[in-house]
Design brief:
The protein is of the alpha+beta class and 758 residues long. The protein is 17% helix and 31% strand.
């Protein structure tokens, strides 16, 4: 053997052995087994002779068990006949050349079915699946040392809560028996938190087992005053409850109630409250207090329920939505009464009252898992997931939808850039925030098929751009984010304009399932930076009431109530009337005004004749006549408070099949300053412009000599540049507006028309 090859083989073998031993001895047996002890999978060089693989494995002190149905992958087991002796001799045992063919080694990982209880009505519990409970239960099911106070209408001694209730108090009847829940509300909430799992009856709560419920009855069949409410909250505080589930709300900042809430929070209790069911933008109290986790309600498809309050929301959780049918409500434990005798049953209810105990139960699981109470809220919020569809809206979802498994594992993958629904350039940057994940399981997809519109790729191979073998190239220095540019993925091309999708997934490092995030974003070629600009939009729009500027200029809002607001302004050079030759002048776009003349109505009637106040005309081959086209040919002032993008998916003027390019594009001009725009989506020579006046047509320079126009144009280069002069030797740039000074031209027989050829 070549002594250098032998030495390299020795070093590589030693390194692999160190890796194998590290995997064996650092494993923590107190958590779920992650891989098969002493078994590993090796990857050989492509096409390696199996005999050489066997030799290499034996030199590692292992035994080759079998080849796997994955090219060049083999299962091996430590402690084989090869032993370690030959490894340290530095010599081969024969003259037969030895080839080192092992490229990599990995543990033989274990996979588990997610925990699913055998409870009778499990199929009805879409809410538990929505918040990822089957995977969460693989990590934690609940500990008896944690108690959740259900401060409500009482909690019945329901069979599905057997062994889960501790002593509470009834402040309505002033006794020690809070089981007479006359309306079923508290019993329903208690079942969501802690109905016993896997007992073959009924339902299963967020806390499968262990966690205790402290029933505190402060509601009966009507409203409850502050004086009684704070007694119930005080009982929970002084009797050891670590979590308070508060599915109630009031309509004002109550100083006495606020003082009790502050006291409970200061003592370390995790406080969770329903946002309220008034469909208003202000959560009710106590949810509105900053010490409390405020919870809005979602239905089974992640959309915010129609009744849910919103505004200063911390997190969203399943609350049900009966507009989708009864099965879309929350199914849990119930009690009914007849002749003072309870009947224990199950049924559907909906409301932020139902969303609240999902979060309270999640808090109890975190406490059971050993998470300090001071960290619970942050865990819940930082691991909340975005909705599967409809886009993320923090006003309604807060941090997102509750994901209990992610909170337990403290694992996060969150798409930071591009933002959901954002528009970016053709070479976009991508940034995914990560925490507590197994990097080897990362998968990032771009532009994949998603027939179900659920964000998840239909094909595990289509659109996969980064996986666990390449992710290490894109980690930031602190290993808290994956960052790359489109050019890193596709060096020879820019990203196509239009809509794109992005999906990221990874397994939690602590086990118990995966975390994921996805978004849809758009790519545009042209960005308009924050500030003041002269723009043109070379589009052939037939429905200006629908194709409004905010849809073309992505990210803008022109309504008077928008904050911050963008402005679109047009100079209208048409005379004001037959007796007033002064131009109409500047007009501001007002989308709420049906008489708006900046965008919606770019025509005016002058002495019985319809005149264009902007834009121009093309010769339509199909119609065999001129057709008015707007906004092509018009120039605008655009003021934007932040960077925006132009949506170039709209049909441009010169892309139309009926456009006769030989006749060009005709723009009517009026004496004085005219604000025009390049009507085409490509540059055109300014000198090639033609002008027709009183039956005569002349090119630009001859028209200037004839005293019709000035050949110099002006555009605006931004606040740092100011106005820029454009000469006859320059090009008219696409998407750019210009000032042109005209010396002749009116509204009758002395009209002046400029023709710009494509």
């Amino acid at each position: 053997m070549n002594k250098y090859k032998g030495w390299l083989a020795f070093l590589y073998t030693t390194a692999l052995l160190v890796l194998l031993c590290t995997c064996v001895f650092c494993h923590n047996e107190s958590v779920k087994q992650i891989y098969v002890p002493n078994e590993y999978i090796v990857k050989a060089q492509p096409g390696s002779n199996p005999q050489f693989v066997r030799q290499a494995v034996e030199r590692m002190g292992a035994t080759l068990v079998k080849a796997l149905p994955v090219a060049d992958h083999y299962l091996i087991k430590l402690g084989g006949a090869g032993g370690h002796a030959s490894l340290y001799t530095g010599r081969t045992k024969s003259a037969q050349p030895f080839r080192w063919v092992i490229e990599s080694v990995q543990p033989n990982y274990l996979y588990y079915l997610c925990a699913v209880p055998n409870d009778e009505y499990w199929p009805k519990l879409w809410n538990m699946r929505q918040i990822n409970m089957p995977a969460a239960w693989e990590i934690e099911k609940g500990k008896a040392r944690v108690t959740v106070a259900i401060i409500d209408s009482g909690t019945a001694n329901h069979p599905d809560l057997q062994g889960r209730l501790v002593q509470g108090y009834d402040f309505i009847d002033n006794d020690n028996d809070p089981s007479n829940d006359l309306i079923g509300h508290g019993t329903h909430c208690a079942g969501i938190v802690a109905a016993q799992g896997n007992n073959a009856i009924g339902v299963c709560g967020v806390c499968w087992s262990g966690v205790k419920i402290m029933p505190v009855r402060v509601f009966s069949t009507g409203a409850t005053p502050t004086s009684m409410l704070v007694q119930g909250e005080d009982y929970a505080l002084k009797n050891g409850a670590q979590v308070a589930s508060m599915s109630y709300g009031g309509y004002g900042d109550d100083p006495a109630h606020r003082a009790k809430i502050s006291e409970m929070a200061a003592a370390g209790m995790v406080l969770v409250a329903a946002a309220g069911n008034d469909a208003t933008n202000t959560p009710s109290y106590p949810a509105a207090y900053p010490e409390v986790i405020s919870v809005s309600a979602v239905g089974p498809y992640d959309a915010i329920a129609y009744y849910s309050n919103y505004g200063k929301i911390d997190i969203a959780a399943p609350g049900g939505d009966d507009s989708l049918g009864e099965d879309a409500e929350i199914y849990s434990t119930l009690v009914t009464w007849s002749n003072n005798a309870p009947t224990y049953t199950y049924g559907y209810l909906e409301g932020t009252s139902m969303a609240c105990p999902h979060v309270a139960g999640a808090a109890a699981l975190l406490l059971s898992y050993g998470v300090p109470s001071a960290e619970v809220k942050n865990r819940l919020l930082t691991t909340a997931r975005p909705p599967r569809s409809g886009g993320m809206d923090s006003i309604r979802y807060g941090a997102g939808i509750l994901d209990v498994r992610a909170a337990l594992a403290n694992a996060i993958v969150r798409i930071v850039e591009p933002a959901k629904g954002a528009t970016v350039g053709t070479s976009p940057d991508f940034r995914i925030s990560i925490q507590g994940i197994n990097l080897a399981t990362v998968k990032i997809y771009i532009d994949y098929a998603d027939a179900n519109d659920d964000g998840i790729p239909d094909d595990p191979n289509e659109g996969l751009v980064i996986d666990g073998t390449t992710v290490y190239f894109y980690l930031n220095s602190t290993r808290t984010a994956i960052q790359f540019n489109w050019r890193d993925i596709s060096p020879s091309s820019t990203m196509a304009t239009g809509s794109h999708n992005l999906y990221v997934s990874a397994d939690a490092a602590a086990g118990g399932g995966s975390v994921s995030d996805w978004c849809v974003f758009s790519v545009a070629r042209r960005k308009i930076e924050k500030g003041i600009h002269m723009v043109a939009l070379p589009y052939d729009l037939t429905q200006r009431a629908l194709d409004t500027p905010d849809k073309i200029l992505l990210g803008t809002a022109f309504d008077y109530g928008a904050s911050p607001r963008s402005l679109l302004i047009r100079w209208i050079s048409v005379p004001r009337s037959t007796t007033d030759n002064n131009p109409v002048g500047y007009q501001l776009y007002d989308p709420a005004n049906s008489a708006d003349c900046v965008w919606l109505n770019p025509l005016t009637t002058f002495a019985g004749t319809s005149l264009a106040t902007g834009g121009g005309y093309v010769y339509d081959i199909a119609l065999k006549k001129l057709r008015f086209v707007f906004p092509a040919g018009s120039g605008f002032w655009l003021i934007v408070p932040y960077d925006v993008w132009i949506d170039e998916s709209y049909p441009t003027l010169d892309a139309g099949s009926n456009f006769d390019g030989s006749k060009g594009f005709q723009i009517p001009l009026y004496k004085g300053w005219n604000m025009i725009g390049n009507p085409y989506a490509h540059p055109v020579p300014w000198r090639a412009a033609l002008f027709t006046y009183q039956g005569k047509t002349k090119p630009l320079l001859e028209a200037e000599s004839a005293g019709w126009v000035k050949s110099a144009l002006y555009t605006y280069g931004g606040s740092s540049v100011g106005y820029q002069r454009v000469t006859d030797r320059d090009l008219l740039e696409p998407y750019t507006g210009y000032w042109l000074y005209v010396l002749v031209g009116g509204t009758g027989t002395d009209s002046l028309v400029m023709t710009i050829l494509p």
